[in-house]
Amino acid sequence: MPQAFQFTEAKVKALESPANGREYHKDSRFPGLQLCVTETGTRTYYLVKRVAGKPTRIRLGTAEQLSVEQARTAAATIAGEVACGRDPLSERRKRLAAPTLDMVWRQWLEGHAKPRKRSWKEDERIYRKYLGEFHARRIASIRPVEVAQWHVGLGESSGHVQANRAKSLLSGLLNYAIRLEIVIVNPCRSVPSFPEQSRERFLLPSEMKAFFDALAAAGEPWHDLFQLSLFTGARYGNVASMRWDEVDFDRMTWTIPAAKAKADRPIIIALPPPAIVILQGRQGLTGESPYVFAINGTACHVRTPWKAWDRVRAASGLHNLRIHDLRRSLGSWQAVAGASLAVIGASLGHADLKSTQTYARLTLEPVRQSVDSAVAAMLAAGGVKLLEGHSEPVENGGGNEANG
User: Fold this and answer.
1) What angle do CA 254, 310, 345 make, to 5 degrees?
2) Is the pLDDT reported for residue 388 higher than 70?
3) Residue 44: CA count within 13 A, CB half-sphere
4) How confident is the model at residue 163 (pLDDT cuts 50, 70, 90)?
5) 368 CB contacts (<8 Å, ≥6 apart)?
6) What is the pLDDT of residue 365?
7) Phi/psi of residue 382, each to 5°?
């Protein structure tokens, strides 16, 4: 039977642990407040009350977490809730059963992201690396002030752009939770993003020679891949996964199928003569593989270019140049040559609705003329020799590093 005495800090601390099991002690000052002492010395406060007609023991906290007076205050608060008809244990069980962010993430990843987003692997990287402190959190418990503090801290440690991307992913998960009727408010909405400046880096005329000279350092097949990225303005992932059945040598076009295009619609790329030269040169290098940039003639294509790209940047001295800047470079050189935004958008496969409506009416010829002129100008600026309208292939830098 529980021993009754008036709890004080000294008396609670002086209680001896039982030889085995546990012992309960009653507070003679507050009816229903009990202290449980275990054989390991743990001391835990409970409130014992009838809830819905049944004797119920409600945990308040340990003696390390609560003072005697704090335990009495907590007991009084819960006793008042019970008197008003509430069931604290039932509500606690509901809170514990409420979905965590990780539960929503797994459902979102499998049911939404993988079937619909090509960038789901990047979302997974961001989630694992930056959202860790929220993984085990109940969705309903996440507050705007916590998101704001986390966002600011991430901005200081990983940069504003990465912090904004991580907050965007968190916001997307919380919006998904709203659609599932788990919560009704997204705490990210009241947290402003950091201002960002759009990147405007592209290859300048004075940099072209250094860039083309440095391509030899990339090795096989990267020098060809990086040149095609520049000459076509296509995204790196599309160039790396280019298939022979997507290339029409007679029409000098490359069709990126809808399944691989960011906008979920086919993109027809006008291949300039130097790109055709590169592709013709690669026909004898890929064996029976369906891929232009096959790994040792297998049915797999190259993926990670970072080591090869670092060699190009080191050899050229263009240390701040990114692979995506090659895509931006083609559009910029077209703009310098006077091409319209519609033609540039068509050559790059932009999916903006207004641009699409405009360049959908264009034939491929003005696009081809613009791309050919821009590529010829870049090659001329780089001092690359032209032979009957075709570029002289860059010498093989050696090596067969399929993964960079």
Assistant:
1) 35
2) no
3) 14
4) very high
5) 252, 270, 272
6) 79
7) -85, 0
Mean confidence (pLDDT) of the chain: 85
8 Å CB contact between 238 and 246: no
List, for residues 284-310, the tens digit of each pLDDT value.
Answer: 888 889 999 998 877 889 988 989 999
Instruction: Write the pLDDT tens digit of every residue in 208-231.
Output: 999 999 998 888 899 999 999 999
Cβ–Cβ under 8 Å, residues 172 and 126: no
| 251 in Cβ contact with 364 (< 8 Å) | no
Question: How far from the centroid of its chain's Cα atoms is residue 131's Cα?
Answer: 10
**Terminal-to-terminal C-alpha distance of the chain:** 73
- 371 has pLDDT over 50: yes
Which alpha helices (DSSP H) does 317-398 contain, by range? 324-336, 341-348, 353-359, 364-381
In angstroms, the CA 230 to CA 21 distance is 74
- Residue 301, φ and ψ in degrees, nearest 5: -110, 165
Residue pointed to by tokens 């692979």: 323
- Residue 47: φ, ψ to 5°: -110, 125
Q: Tell me the C-alpha distance between 279 and 224, whole Å.
A: 8
Q: Which domains does the chain have, with CATH numbers?
A: 3-94 (3.30.160.390), 101-179 (1.10.150), 205-391 (1.10.443.10)
Residues in CB range of 365: below 8 A, 6 or more apart:
none
Neighbours of 396 (CB within 10 A): 16
CA distance 91 to 110: 30
Give, to the nearest 10 degrees, the angle between helix 222-232 and helix 324-336. 40
65 Cβ neighbours under 8 A, 6+ residues apart: none
Encoded tokens for 311: 């060699």
CA distance 136 to 384: 57
